[in-house]
Design brief:
Layout: E1 2-6, E2 9-11, E3 33-35, H1 37-51, E4 57-64, H2 68-78, E5 82-87, H3 94-108, E6 112-116, H4 127-135, E7 138-149, E8 152-159, E9 162-169, E10 172-176, H5 188-194, E11 199-202, H6 235-244
Parallel strand pairs: 1-4, 1-6, 4-5, 5-11, 6-10, 7-10
Antiparallel strand pairs: 2-3, 7-8, 8-9
Helix pairs in contact: 2-5, 3-4
This protein binds adenosine monophosphate.
Residues 6-8, 36, 38-39, 42, 62-64, 94, 97, 115-116, 118-119, 124-128 line the site of adenosine monophosphate.
């Protein structure tokens, strides 16, 4: 079974993001970029399926500018076999990403596609679901456990009040939740080997997909600054402040 895993390059989650002065978006200049954490989990799951002998090949795909090849190489160092870079300077919306991925799915015919449940830049949480709709494949979103049994995929999902297990007929789509696994680090020899693994570059137009804007970001604002705390001298003062200043009781 071939596994297709999709990864997005995003601002490193340790970086404190700065909003641009004109409020049009987030400032990306001189900012450390990294693999989206949910995509790291997707990669780990794909590599584990290969190590278990369930998957025969792991193909990684990323859409974005030339710089995303850094993340593709990182995934190749983690154990993927080959990469596909769909090159665009734009940051396409989930529907465009899903349309591009649907073309890759049609060409590659994977038995399983694993995506992150969301990219931590815009928190869209849409691409996997849209890809399922476009390809007609079944989907198990927010997976906390995945098991292949014959031509069926068992996906455990953490839902309100418990765990739900879905049975999906393969080929299927999975999006990863935090508790699915703990991603590994790449070793130096594997980083060196990854440089020689195949990486194919495609243009969206060559896949027959026109990147469209389906929505427009009107404004991006940073969260309000936290006000400093104060010390109160007595319970009476605390109750008074909660009642008359904070007005929460
Ligand atoms: P989103 O719907 O934007 O929150 O993204 C959910 C998941 O879709 C991500 O974790 C990735 O696995 C995949 N994805 C989104 N954008 C891209 C992209 N530009 N290139 C590759 N995969 C992507």
């Amino acid at each position: 079974m071939k596994v297709l895993v999709t990864v997005k390059r995003v601002i490193d989650y340790n970086v404190k993001v700065r909003v641009k002065a004109d409020h049009s978006g987030v400032d990306l200049s001189n900012v450390k970029m990294a693999l989206n954490p949910f995509c790291e989990i997707a990669v780990e799951e794909a590599v584990r399926l290969k190590e278990a002998g369930t998957a025969t090949e792991v193909v990684v795909v990323s859409i974005g500018p030339a710089a995303v090849q850094e993340q593709i190489r990182a995934v190749l160092a983690l154990g993927a076999d080959r990469g596909i870079h769909i090159e665009t300077e734009a940051d396409p919306e989930p529907l465009s990403v899903a349309k591009l991925l649907a073309k890759v799915v049609a060409a590659e015919r994977p038995g399983l596609v694993i995506l992150g449940k969301q990219a931590i830049d815009a928190d869209n949480n849409q691409t996997g679901q849209m890809l399922a709709a476009l390809t007609g494949m079944g989907q198990g979103t927010f997976a906390s456990a995945v098991k292949v049994e014959g031509d069926e995929l068992l996906v455990t999902r953490e839902v309100d009040g418990g765990l739900q297990t879905l049975g999906l007929r393969l080929p299927a789509i999975v999006t990863t939740d935090l508790r699915l696994n703990e991603p590994r680090y790449a070793t130096l020899p594997n980083i060196m080997k990854a440089k020689k693994k195949p990486l194919e570059v495609r243009a969206p137009a060559a896949l027959g997909v026109e990147l469209r804007a389906y929505s427009q970001v009107l404004k991006v604002e940073p969260p309000a600054d936290r006000r400093g705390g104060i010390k109160v001298a007595s319970v009476e003062e605390l109750v008074d402040k909660l009642k008359n200043e904070a007005k929460v009781i």
